[in-house]
Amino acid sequence: MTLRVNRERLGQNLEALSQIGKSPRGGINRALGSEAEREARRWLCGYWKTHLHKTAAPDAAANLWVVRPGNACKAKIAFGSHHDTVTEGGKFDGALGVLLATEILETLEETHTPTRHPFALVSFTGEEPNPFHVSTLGSKVLSGRLHRADLEHLENEQTHAPFSETLAALGGDLQKIDEALLSPADVCAFLECHIEQGRRLLDKNLPLAAVGKITGIYREDITVHGEANHAGTTVMRDRHDALLAACALNLAFERALRAVDRDDVTGTVGQLLVFPNSVNIIPGAVVLTLEIRTCDEAILETLREAVTRAAAAIEAQRGVQIERQVNLNQAPAPMSPVLQDALLQAFSDLGQPPCTLTSMAGHDAANVARRTRAGMLFVRSNGKSHCAGEDASLDDIELAGNAMLQALLRLDQELE
């Protein structure tokens, strides 16, 4: 008989975990190291102990691992996501992947289904932005992107508590961080399930997609140097308004993005700091961050050149100076064709059409892909994420759970 996940149990667990860190405004606050995040860890570990009869083991980065033994192979097949949230986040981002992995392990346990490989459930530490200003922290440690030297001087921006203390309280060990590198001989594949967060699946009227790539992310810190002056006595022709110049640059950037006109290319100016930021002073300087997300290097270069041309024109027209510095140029992360094929075959077995998308958000799977095979399964959402309005139907979640279960069992037979 084909195995199926337990829809009702999965829904109950999603609801139970969503109550931890829930605010009066309806969002969820479980930032790394907060009391709510620690409570979520306790809830998960308690559930795994009670229902899976397994004790979670934190690694040096405090990633939580639960392992179900296999009967033939040493290398694990891992699956999971993260349990922390953004400020006022939704109940599916991260938590869905952890609880789907939990449900799959529970289904295997209660049906006494043997597997060749050990199956490892993981909930990563600090995937979201947090008071320590390092996102996808746990998976970056495993991939070798973060080392002890990068973390030992960090402190909580609000409490000033050292990161080492927070990590120790969560069961990690900063002194052993550099020993936590993921080995392909230990984990031969990793699969992460996540709501899509956008509305591409919603618009296509499709419940599931395999992820082909996780987008590259490029960011520049840009400073527009104008001239601060009196807001009343400086006539319009004599002004060098840094804020208006920054606005012109942002609009030129938007025009370049719209000219590309692709769903897998986005750009954002999401942060501006205005100086001196006074009601009666012309802005003298603006600091902003410009971001481009794409998997296409040629398109990235086209957009960078468009920004360069726009900046030069604005400098000449408005008498300002524009200073640019790259602060991130993260390459795209291709997902394993083997894992994509396993997911697409599972879709077919469940009567669902094939669909492959690029992830326009970053995920732990992008870091894991640096060390071993990695893949992602997207579930249709309502197009809202990182907010209390985030939603997904239990019908789609049940379908995702069954697709992931079948894909994992297929991988268990195919991988050495």
The geometry reads as globular
What is the arithmetic mean of pLDDT? 97
Number of strands: 13
Strand content: 15-25%
**How would you classify the helix and strand content by structural class?**
alpha/beta
What's the helical proportion of residues?
25-40%
Stretches where pLDDT is under 50 for at least 5 consecutive residues are: none
N/C terminus separation = 25 Å
Profile the largest sheet: 9 strands, mixed
What is the H-and-E element order?
HHEEEHEHHHEHEEHEEHEEHEHEH
> Helical element count?
12
The rounded Rg comes to: 23 Å
Explain how this protein is built:
The protein has helices at 7-18, 35-52, 95-110, 137-143, 148-151, 163-169, 200-204, 242-260, 297-318, 337-349, 364-368, 394-414, and strands at 57-58, 64-68, 76-82, 119-124, 187-195, 208-214, 216-225, 266-275, 285-294, 321-330, 333-334, 356-359, 373-379. With 416 residues, it is α/β, with parallel strands linked by helices. Strands 1, 2, 3, 4, 5, 6, 11, 12 and 13 form a nine-stranded mixed beta sheet that branches. A four-stranded antiparallel beta sheet has the order 8-9-7-10, with helices on one face. The mean pLDDT is 97.
In short:
This protein has 416 residues and is α/β, with parallel strands linked by helices.
